[in-house]
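Hello,

Our lab assistant flagged a job as stuck in the queue for most of the afternoon. It eventually completed. Since we weren't sure the result was trustworthy after the delay, we are filing this so someone can double-check. Below is the sequence as submitted and the structure that was eventually returned. Let us know if re-running is recommended.
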Amino acid sequence: MDPSEAIAIIETDLRELAKVVLTSARGGDWLQSTLDPAEIDELQGRLEEERKRRTPAVVPDELIAYTHIYELRKIIEKNWQFFAVALGEKKTFVVFMDKVEDYRNAPSHSRELLPHERSLLEGIAGEIRSRATAYRSSQAPDASYYPVIESIRDGFGNTPDRLSTEVATTTEVGVRLRPGQVLRFECRGWDPQGRELIWRIGRVFASYAKGDPARGPSVVL
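-- returned structure --
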């Protein structure tokens, strides 16, 4: 696993876990009640900067999407009483986050990770992913059987309003394609049973599917 992919998995899983745990514990404004006003302003600034920099691409409008590892760590540690069931021993989580922060910074400064560091980062990503999935399973006991769609993003930056492997949903994005235009979907998922994931492009609410399936945890359709 590439280090950037491992970091993306860790950040995505911690964001989703934070939303699930703290929305239940503190309500819809949990982020504002957890971070300082200056930190909320910083996240809002990142959102606005992302919009300006990537126009006309669509960017997420949830502030949690613009948190970094150290901010996610602060959110979770500040509310540890709600996360202990999902993440286990706090001291283990702290050690993991220390390593993740170290390894996240190295590639951004043109320092390649060593093989054992890459393996450790991949292991931390797997541990957090497994714990996050196990927690979801505890909320819905049969969830431990089903694959989890972690993210889907099209070439314009659109992401679905809801991700599910059990219920069909639609998301209106307001983009019209020209005949012959190719649209790419970047998809990432995970199966708690270790089964191979198979992805297809198809029409909503229909059995039609186009082309050969893509296989694996991270694919492009």
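-- support follow-up --
The delay was a queue issue, not a problem with the job. The result is valid. The chain is about 50% helix and 15% strand. Residues 44 and 149 are 27 Å apart (CA to CA).
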